[in-house]
Amino acid sequence: MELPTPLASTHHLFRDSELGRLAKIATDLLATMATTSPAQTLSLGVLATFPDPTAQYGAPAAIVQVQNASPFIITVTIDGETHNIQSFTAQTLPTAGSGASMLVLPTTGPAGTQGTLTPVWLNAGEPPPMADGQLTGAAQYAQGLGSQLYQGAGSIGSLAIPPTTRTLLIALQAFVNGSWPSLTIVGNQSGFDYYNQPLYLKAGGANQNYLAVVPIPALLDKNVSIVTTSTASFIMSVFADTAQYDESVFYNNGTVTSSAQAVTAATAGLTAGPCRLLTAAVIAGTNLGYIEIGATPILYAATATAESLSVPAPGIIIPSGVTVSVVSTAGTANGTVNTAYP
After folding, report:
1. Is 289 inside any structural domain?
2. Would you give the DSSP letter of residue 70?
3. 19-32 tens-digit pLDDT
């Protein structure tokens, strides 16, 4: 049935008015909702641009939470203001409702690595989706700072640590049984005594292996002095990690158990990095067997002897490309490790 011309015109006016009202409601609703930009991959020294997606609704965001899931310290510029945000950290910044794009430059961090950044654009008074501070469950990175051989007592002297460092991992391998080695770590800028006691983890065998996990705020100290005391010759290896301990979570679906057997002077792979070593165990057959990280033995077992190593949280970090293996010098050696993805 055709409507009379005047009524038809009124019908169209009503329809257009209603559609306009609904469109305005939808626009206002979008303008009051948090808007998350797609994550972008960050690389050291490469500028990234993040437009404010809420500006298109006519109500630009008043604040933005920057979720920096990367190993880099980043410089963030928005509305003429510059901010520095630490690695693996969320921080909420004002935007002054300018609708301007956010510029992000990774300035400091381990070369050859990458990470992501996700901005969440919010209105004034709107709470961010997570609390500001360290991101949990983000991939962490370890950077080797080198190994040195000492005869008896030794000092690594002034060791520079990357600005993203939150923890130092100290691994010491003594070549003969001796007294339990002590370790002292002092911040060169602050003078703070970060560690002054024996290394707290020991694995027995033909050699003695020790480990200490020491929180170091690199924002406070750019370098540290490390001194050890031992009655035996030893190699000390130092790793810097971007994770902050103590951690209470296992990453990405918990732990993984890997087992393998090495037969007659052979090597069998157990797992490969990146991962965190949580526990290790080895049983030798007719002769010495051991578990090694790369080419570094960490746990030995003599003839028909089982040795187990329970690594204290957060565990030993296995960098990408490094393999954990079980090795037999003769006969058989069975090894098992539990790991968590970093």
Report:
1. yes
2. S
3. 555 555 444 444 44
